[in-house]
Amino acid sequence: MRVFRRARGARKRRAVRIPGAVVVLLACLPVIAAVGALALSASDADRDGEAAARQAVAARPESRHTAARPRIVPRSAWAGDDARDRPPPRYDDKVVAVFVHHTDSPNGYACADVPRIIRYLAAGQTGARQWDDIGYNFLVDRCGTIYEGRAGGIDRPVTGAHTQGFNHRTSGIAALGTFTAGVPVPRAMTDAIAALAAWKLGLTGVDPRSRVKLVSSNSHSRFASGTSATLPTLAGHDDGYMTSCPGAALSARLPEIRERAARLQGRR
After folding, report:
1. Exposed, middle or buried: residue 95 (CB in 10 Å: 0-12, 13-18, 19+)?
2. What is the CATH number of the domain that holds 195?
3. How confident is the model over 127-162, as pLDDT tens digits?
4. pTM (2 decimals)?
């Protein structure tokens, strides 16, 4: 393939040869969708939707109340070179709320074993539940290490599968363990949740102590489909769904987590 360029002040055209392999690669971008087998193109609607979302984010006014992005371990640390076919990630235009969960799994784990544990949790959700990927956007262990969960990009508003009715415009953070009444919640874990929420909500200028209107997408939540619900911007799973998650002990720490997240955003 030849591309002709006109240099400034020049009368002649210069032919630039582009390798065929590069042309093929460019033709394959930006999306590789998998449904049964890998397809090398996306629908025009999907491309238009993602473009609109990117433009909305780009047009958003910058907020003074932002927080530094904490260290986040990429999903490759636990998923490895997982080559399973899965649909492409879905995106919203922004994240305006965070839901906190617990994984309802044993607490006495070694932090070095966390990648294996997340792999096990993901296998349960994609196997028995037949989800397309792990539902949580992020997971936090008792040592305060943050892991990327659902695929799609740490910095992007990936639509999760963590809170029935309220997966859109929200991000799900799962605390690794079970935090029912009386169970100690490690300070390193709550500090990491606060740092992650401060950064994620700060991308859209959201105060972690405020409340936000979200529309329930189905009637499996606490609210009938189409109902506008006013919920905390840093909420427990049980705020939107009939569940005991994230456990009484972790729920009791949410006010403290909200305050710490707000301070990390530079709010008083």
Report:
1. buried
2. 3.40.80.10
3. 888 889 999 999 999 999 999 999 999 999 999 999
4. 0.76
